[in-house]
Fold these 2 entries.
Entry 1:
Amino acid sequence: MKYISTRGQGGEKGFKDVLLAGLAEDGGLYVPKELPQFSAEKISSLRSLPYNELAFEVIKPFVNGEIEDSILKGLIDDSYASFAHTAVAPMTQIGHNEWIMELFHGPTLAFKDFALQLLGRLLNHVLTERGERAIVLGATSGDTGSAAIEGCRHSDALDIFILHPYQRVSEVQRRQMTSVLDDNVNNIAIHGNFDDCQSMVKESFADQSFLPENTRLVAVNSINWARIMAQVVYYFHAALQVGAPDREVAFSVPTGNFGDIFAGYIAKGMGLPVGKLVVATNTNDILHRFFKDNDYRKQELKHTLSPSMDIMVSSNFERLLFDMQNRDGAALASLMDSFQQTGTLSVSDSAWDDIKVLFNSSRTDNESTCSAIKELFDRTGYLADPHTITGVRALAEVDIPEEMPKVVLSTAHPVKFGEAIEKAGLETPALPHHMADLMEREERYSVLENDLKKLHGFIQEHSKHS
Ligand SMILES: *Cc1c(COP(=O)(O)O)cnc(C)c1O
């Protein structure tokens, strides 16, 4: 199986090159040229597998033999062994034919661990084999940095540098990052805001002359194909438990950059009977407006109670647009160029009608976030975080056949987002047992001025040269 760019240039690539590249050279995103196909018999045969073994079966065709099976299996086993629940992604029933799949039992209590635990290990394996090293550089407004750090800490071929705005992230968020003391992990608090941090990262990718020799710069953001690939697995996991391949299953997915839900679309493309995909947004609702009115239009960023879904544009949406343009790279490239200039795009009526057979959407504002958290708690005793609740609420808003099982992807543990829980009139739960001592753990981080030269000097000094 080979990969191509959504913008049509650069020819076909193998799995390892796609893994290391992140973004394609023509500015597009990598997608499989053709999807592996799983028959109903094959899907049935996966039913009794534990999560790690299922993951191996689903991921293997995407790696296409470029990593030996026994090694790939080891990397996958290690990735999910660190989860604090032996089911890895346990399901809880919240209503008639309605489930929540908990994707927050990883080391940072959010679903990004599913992808980043594996991504760090895959990168480490491929770099070591090639005798190379890489620097992972990223900026975080608080929530996503820790998942990248936890994903890279065990990888000797990686040095990770995560910038966060000094004194502008919550104590729990800071401690989740800064209490990781491995010597390839570098937390840097920048005197500035999140945008300052992000600009420094962007400028570093644009001019990489500061890098030590034989070292590459890699991005672990959600456009990396390997992240999507890892997320496909839990759609199989959930669907098998509620009746696939004999029944169609609906998924409701709290959505920001369209990575998580796109993995559900890929699962369907592989043969999993996914009957509906519900895009649940907060008031940063560009995707909801697209699915409602075929109007994908950039608006200003709004800060909400579900901050990990606060986006202006959805970086992975390009992958779906590529299919809606009949996989014509040139047509997609010109659509994206015009979006860059005008801040708006739409697709043909027929492409939009076709995609709406599978996708539905719903938007939840801050007030409904709180009332829905309370309502679910009163009805079931289940406490959902403010991201997850957008998915729960969306199910009540859209039309899905009664007999179709519905699974909401729970993307974070409620302890991470206490503000919304308290606004809902409920109490923030305690940290789970494996993190109970977080507030006492030793921390390590450096504070730097908002100055690119100083950052680059710091990276040169603190990365391990080969
Ligand atoms: C990243 C994130 C999301 C959004 O996921 P996308 O793949 O960007 O759509 C939702 N909830 C939480 C808690 C997240 O961290």
Entry 2:
Amino acid sequence: MSGFTTLAVHAGQEPDRLTGAVIPPIYQTSTFVQDGINVLRDGHEYSRGSNPTRNGFEQQLCALEKGASGFAFASGIAAEDALLRAVLRPGDHVVLGADGYGGTNRLVSRVLAPWQVQHTAVDVTDLDAVRGAATARTRLVWVETPTNPLLGIADLAGLAELAHEYGALLVVDNTFASPYLQRPLEFGADAAVHSTTKYVGGHSDVLGGAVVVADREWHVEAVNGFSPGSTLAELVAFQQFAAGAVAGPQDTYLAARGLKTLALRMERHQHNAGQIAQWLTQRPEVSQVFYPGLPDHPGHELAARQMDGFGGMISFRLRAGEAAARRFAESTQMYKLSVSLGGVESLICWPSQMTHGCVAGTENAVPTDLVRLSVGIEDVEDHLEDLELAFTS
Ligand SMILES: *Cc1c(COP(=O)(O)O)cnc(C)c1O
């Protein structure tokens, strides 16, 4: 039992021992009865610390990411926050992707900055730029690949080597690729993070996040004589329990259910996306298509080596500029105008004032003539018809 889809269906999802229910129950409980003081049945005491539904999902995702431990949170941002605070201390520095999820940039630059955490945002597809940004205080190199929204490809093995040279950890936000297409820990990354809201959940019906860590020693400075652990897993587990942004049982049930079909969904997402990207390159209205599956994409060969497919996200620029891009994003019918991504239904957005509105006007701003598609699993003919209509409306 080691195939990806076999693990997706079975890891952490064993039938209920008591009743034989094939699908593990949703343990909708805050606390667990003790058989004597501190005598715990099955190790569960209180659902912030552990809950069987959450733990099952954590094991399932961890098996797919080939990690040592997984931790589920209430949102992707909550997962990121826990990992950042597990590792960073005042005075530390983070190298961050410039072309990345706007909320990650906001978390580091606005929530952590008052705690004396510094950061530099760079083009993570350029190893020299990352090296140029790293300092003796760099504790984390935090990247997305493919990047958002320009779908650049970062060299994970190269980045892991570089980060470790500086005594830093490499963290990869694997939300866009999903573990079906890319497993960062296999390239030497120390942790993968997810917004499980996206492809993992896959149905746009739940928020969630996760951290999956490799089995590494990692020492942080003790604070007031207290050191919360010596492995990355212990440090993240401590944050999850002590700061408490855990995912609830209903939410982790939905995420676990979605994750079982990840492989099937991703195959269809990327089958559609490949055809649509190719079609877009033929459109006179389009000046540039960003999709790593296109042979002239600058990261195409790296993506082909490092990923098992090219994913379901496409961005493209409209020749006629900002107004045309806005109009296009507001003109599709099947593609719903919306932030977020990774659900079975297709979504369209205008990143410069939607997903990336919080970096508008900064050096990390995204082009205003850019449109981003989260290509759903609907029939490809319907995609092309919808996009065609939006071009001519
Ligand atoms: C959505 C997203 C996040 C944030 O996750 P939430 O679940 O919305 O908190 C982080 N990284 C990436 C790449 C995302 O797409």
